[in-house]
Write a structure and sequence with these properties.
Helix 7 links the parallel strand 4 and strand 5. The radius of gyration is 18 Å and the shape is elongated. Helix 1 runs antiparallel to helix 5. It contains 11 helices and 7 strands. About 35% of the residues are buried. The strands form 2 sheets. A 5-stranded parallel β-sheet has the order 5-4-1-6-7, with helices on both faces. By secondary structure, the protein is of the alpha/beta class. Helix content is about 45%, strand content about 15%.
Amino acid sequence: MPNSPLRAVIFDIGRVLVKLDLARAIEGLSQGIALSPAELWSAIEKDPRWHDWQEGRISPHDWHLHITRRLGSPLKFEEFREAWNRTLDPVPLQSDDLFASLAREHKLALVSNTDPIHIAHLESNFSFFQFFSRPARIYSCAIRASKPSPVIFQAALKAVRTPASQAVFIDDILEYVQVARSLGLHAIQYLNPGQLRSDLNALDPSLDL
């Protein structure tokens, strides 16, 4: 239990709030490309401009042109965008009652390494965004810094106007959880919905999730 009251809850999105299904995306992106699914995703993720894409230094149209030219893909932008968004499973991992309960007494924020194409799709298709004010949606492509950089965590704390000691960060990736703890935040490594509620209750028994 924190020494001071818990005032803010900061969520990652991918694999915490939204399931990622890379196979669905790769199926669409692989049209006309002579690479295995694993080879194709590796080529994209290890692309020299990947961090530029994740940190907002390249536009969606320029990213599409860069990737399709590099891989020899015939996909037009609209086709590429549709395939790119297939990685976002339409069924959320958490129910809205979790956010409604938390929002009664706590400030909520999002911290995500993501890109403009995914953001547009996420914000148009998932109801949980109603619980997160726009200033508290901290996207790597918007602030030009990505996890595990301290910059993105500091941006979230500034958005919720809460000191690190009174905030908890939730992510599925242990490295990011450890960085958050090193910055003074409480942090939970996400495993499943039941574990998340249990860990939040242990951190702040007043929640009764």
